[in-house]
Specification:
Length: 434
């Protein structure tokens, strides 16, 4: 099983023999991301290795040296994770959904060892905000992630730049992204308030939120947020205004400056301004609340005018991420909301044959949109698909943690698609009126 933590390995062999242990997340290769341990068998013919200054992430070990084949009890993986308390129990009559829930929980534990959620625990180990916003849908509804999230929001405050801009990772610094990554500072605080009534993290982060929104305002032209560079010279504009990352069939690489990317960033900006306005009102900053809500209305109007395609009755490229985020951000005028809902349903059921068409950000928007329109059945439809792209495909490939990409590329223990653990399952629960 995939784990992240200390490897505890006991071996017997020739005294003085060097032992090399390669660590992998894939059975077909011996090593991933340069993970290798070396040690020497002691004079009595016994050796024991346990990480002391680093940790191990993997599922497969290749052991070389003049040693005996270890017994199963001689090889242990000691999981290290932030204490998130016991999870909510979920049961249903679909075994693959129960398995997916448990796999998502285990993945989150593997990625939360340092008091924040890393993207993957063996390659970059960075606290990406885009990935983290998907994790929010699992971190708070099903686990007690309040302490972790409060601490992580402090990290975002600490990394803010003098001009108000925010990087795309915290507490680490580096990597690409854009507003949909930096916006974690708003949406993490909003989730704490909306789900737990806890305004303390929002109050602490509020000055940083206000300064970041003021920074973004300097990049608004004709009512639309424009592409701009990241908060350091080495993070150029090419890597700083990304759209939906690792969506199936899309090219991975720097921002192509395409209309769909601009639409997603502007719709996200609308959603972010409205949630920031709600936080401001709850904290008693009424002037900020009205100013941000008005700006949201202005950007929403400009975004709708620029990207609504009346002849096709859809937004931008008409794909799942664009339609889902349009609904989450409440972009369509009331008269067009049902039309956009209909288009999203058609994209899922007809255009994509019940499959996902989303990456890191698009998946969390889609899960939120399905909750909003009360169509958890579509989420379950997509979960049930046995081919790519989809979660069940991962499970059918014997995945014990969720992958970075739908096809299994790069990391096999990653935060990309964690939101399903809370999103579809939470939407599937019966609704009660009190």
């Amino acid at each position: 099983k995939m784990f992240n933590g200390h490897l505890d390995l006991r071996l017997r062999g020739r005294p003085g023999a060097e032992v090399v242990v390669d660590v992998s997340a894939r059975p077909e290769v011996d090593q991933v991301y340069n993970q290798q341990h070396r040690f020497v068998v002691g004079p009595a013919g016994h050796a024991r290795f346990r990480n002391r200054f680093n940790y191990t992430t993997g599922q497969w070990l290749t052991i070389r040296g003049e040693v005996e084949v270890p017994r199963p009890e001689d090889v242990r993986g000691l999981l290290i994770a932030t204490d998130l308390g016991p999870p909510a129990r979920f049961e249903c009559d679909l075994p693959h959904v129960e398995q997916l829930y448990e796999t998502a929980l285990h993945t989150l534990r593997c990625l939360s060892l340092g008091g924040y959620v890393v993207d993957c625990s063996h390659r970059e180990r960075l606290g990406y905000g885009g990935d983290g916003q998907g994790a929010l849908q699992l971190l708070l509804p099903t686990l007690d992630g309040r302490a972790l999230l409060a601490k992580w929001l402090e990290d975002w405050v600490d990394v803010q730049q003098p001009d108000g801009n925010l990087p795309f990772t915290a507490p680490t610094y580096g990597g690409g992204g854009g507003p949909m990554w930096s916006g974690f500072i708003v949406h993490g605080a909003a989730e704490m308030h909306e789900r737990h009534g806890d305004l303390a993290p929002a109050a602490h982060a509020y000055p940083a939120i206000a300064r970041w929104l003021e920074f973004l305002q300097t990049h608004v032209r004709d009512g639309l947020l424009q592409r701009h560079a990241g908060p350091a010279d080495f993070i150029s504009a090419r890597w700083s205004f990304l759209g939906d990352w690792v969506a199936p069939g899309r090219q991975q690489g720097p921002n192509g400056d395409d209309p769909e990317t601009h639409f997603l960033n502007n719709a996200y900006y609308v959603w972010t301004l409205n949630r920031a306005g709600n936080l401001a009102a709850a904290l008693g900053h009424d002037d900020d609340a009205e100013r941000w809500r008005q700006e949201a209305r202005d950007v929403a109007r400009a975004t709708h005018d620029a990207y609504w395609r009346p002849e096709e009755q859809t937004y931008s490229d008409g794909r799942q991420p664009s339609l889902a985020l349009a609904l989450v951000a409440q972009l369509p005028p009331p008269a067009l909301r049902d039309v956009v809902v209909k288009r999203l349903v058609e994209q899922i059921t007809d255009a994509c044959g019940g499959h996902l068409d989303t990456g890191i950000s698009g998946t969390q928007f889609l899960l939120r949109a399905l909750q909003q329109i009360e169509r958890a059945d579509l989420g379950l439809l997509m979960i049930g698909q046995r081919d790519q792209p989809g979660w069940r495909y991962m499970l059918d490939q014997n995945a014990t943690a969720l992958w970075e990409q739908w096809d299994g590329g790069h990391s096999r223990c990653h935060a990309s698609f964690l939101g399903v653990g809370g999103g579809v399952i939470e939407a599937s629960l019966p609704r009660f009126e009190i």
